[in-house]
Amino acid sequence: MNEKFATLFETVELPNKVQLKNKFVLAPLTHVTSHDDGTVSEDEINYMEQRSQDVGLSISAASNVTDLGKAFPGQPSVAHDTDIEGLKKLANVMKKNGAKAVVQIHHGGAQSLPNWTPNGDVAAPSPISMKSFGETEEHHAREITHDEILETIKAFGEATR
Question: What range(s) does the NADH:flavin oxidoreductase/NADH oxidase N-terminal domain occupy (predicted)?
Answer without folding.
Answer: 8-161
